[in-house]
Write a structure and sequence with these properties.
This protein is mostly beta strands. Helices cover 8% and strands 34% of the residues. The protein contains 6 helices and 28 strands.
Length: 444
Amino acid sequence: MSLTCCCVFSASCSGCGPGYRSPLDAMKGPREEIVYLPCVYRNTDILKPDYLATVDVDPKSATYCQVIHRLPMPNLRDELHHTGWNACSSCFGDASKKRNRLILPSLVSSRVYVVDVGTNPRAPQIHKMVEPVDLYWKCNLANPHTSHCLGNGQIMISCLGDPSGNGKGGFILLDGETFEVVGNWEHPGDAVPFGYDFWYQPRHNVMISTEWGAPKALAGGFNPAHVMEGHYGSALHVWDWTTHRRLQTLDLGEEGGIPLEVRFLHDPDATEGYVGCALPSTVFRFYKTPVRLITDILISLDDRFLYFSNWLHGDVRQYDITDRRKPRLVGQVFLGGSIVSDGPVKVLEDPENQPQPPPRIIKLSLDGRRLYLTTSLFSSWDKQFYPDMVKEGSVMMQIDVNSVSGGLSLNKNFLVDFGKEPDGPVLAHELRYPGGDCTSDIWV
């Protein structure tokens, strides 16, 4: 599952650049009216291009809970995945910057699409396409994943591998105006064995990057033998943000296998954060010192709550992290997953001693104040673990969030069923709000 917390930012601010001056200011922004989702046909039986869907999430709208626009890509089998912005709150002090281009890296084809969402936010159009050869020849990198805008106006994208499909964790830089490939962010020889996500904290001159696996191992689905063969990562990498040099590698061991989403606290003065590790379903806290298949995590803009989704277990959890060292579970919602009570997987031992959840047929939605979810992760893994979803399409849901004392509950009045798309069932993944959200913006 992919989840996005609904802490939406204003698209503009009188006399300033994009986003907000601070995370707490951002929490006062207006409610979102539309969201963008990449929809994937790779690994389905439908030979159609991936597309960017625009979904109406305004309860007052006549087209509420509907796909109102579809922007098909010009190529097949791209595997659109995560998205980012050309400008965000890191450029707040620059009035010349506008958040008007959505960056769509293609995880498999290695293309990068730049989409114009400023001219008509409800009907985006392709602005530019960066071809794979530019990544290959200029950076010796492939399989782009996470995109973040930088305070200097450039765009930085993490990559999973080299052009041959081997693991290689490096970063490409795009010019923020022309969207041409500038080159590598890291120095020659400083790339790490694997790449995936990254987050930077400029006030402490640090960036943290994570590891997934070698692209050639990922493409065919998850094979546990590949973990033993060293095709998946288990480390965090600490970088000097100013010099672009790798300072430290933190080996998380077996308990930290496949560390994916990484999040610093939103407070730009904070020196700690969290990373979700997929293989053992653990969350690690990392911090500065004087010297279940978890697939997505996020932190509320006031740094009070941490949310994560268990893609195989089938639940979303909310933890109170006011005490950073002792997170406290305060909310949980089950959405089905692989261990439903009448399913093929039986739980033999659970340290939390919870019963297996009942099967849930999703014809309702989950209204998160305003926590949105999609059920697709990566088409190769979707096909392996949830073959019915590949045939029937994924769904978009919402969860109501109690942001005062904690708590999650289902809303049964919202569901976007991507099994009913005009060209057939499709796999919708990560969401993005036009004005930014708590996984896209970084404060400097």
